[in-house]
Structure prediction request, 306 residues.
Amino acid sequence: MTGAPGGDAAPAAPTAPTAPTNADALVEVAVHVDAAQAELAAYATGEFSPGGFQEEEQADGRTRLAVFVRFGEESRYTAWLAQAGITIDGSATVTIVPGDWSERWKEFHQAITIGTLWVGPPWQLDAAPADLKKVVIEPAQGFGTGAHPTTRLVLSLLDAQPRCSVLDVGCGSGVLTVAAAKLGFGPLTAIDNDPVAVDSTLENLERNDVRGVTTRVSDALQEELPTADLVLANVIYEPLVRLAPRMRAPRLILSGLLKSQADDIESVYRANGYVLRERRDRDGWVALVFDSTDVDGTAMRNRDVF
Prediction:
């Protein structure tokens, strides 16, 4: 799921600028949050805009956060923050960024290499090393190409897993699903509660010539989760907590977590029949690998897979 569901805060409507003459214009959407919510707001903003965002502490103690989106998509960011339970101070402000959108947007998305994978936008594909598996992701509407630390953590852990069936919960751009296909996992299922995310995943699957993936709009917090040997969930803290009693897979890779949230998540999943197998940290973020447990509390193994 691309945003944290269940938040009570109502999004403040952005202050709309005069429509630009260039329909593909880039706009800056800026909000202010108080100090108590600054860390969570920055975390949620990083999930919304993995390719980059601005964060500035103000003299009055508040924090200013800004992202860049296409003109007409301004409300997606404020809605995202509201779903994460973040209350912004006043209204969001929107400023048209002068110049060519497509060229400026490219500055925010750079290719990365993780193990045997090259992950990046299509305009950098020609420079990709020939010996790496290519995962080409077109960044769109807040879904990044894979550069965010949590995505890197999940990809590094994924490459180390036995090949098996995979469920990607909160698929976003589809980067994890495409990577799983390139690494030889299957069958694959990708779900998200946001139709825009599912459309983005479908487009990136086609862009990478990945076939046979079951992809659909689904609320993982309300609907039964599809069966898979391995679940990938790179979302955020609140939905990970609510997903815990719904998980049935032998192995989970969870991320979208700050270091300060990792112990709580471990406790929640331990109470729901999972034992922590591995933890990896990067730039203040954490990814956790869990195995299901049997009634005796020992790590369960699927003999054919794990």
Observations:
- The two ends are 27 Å apart (CA to CA).
- Residues 9 and 87 are 6 Å apart (CA to CA).
- Confidence is low (pLDDT under 50) at residues 3-11, 16-21, 295-303.
- The first strand starts at residue 26 and ends at 33.
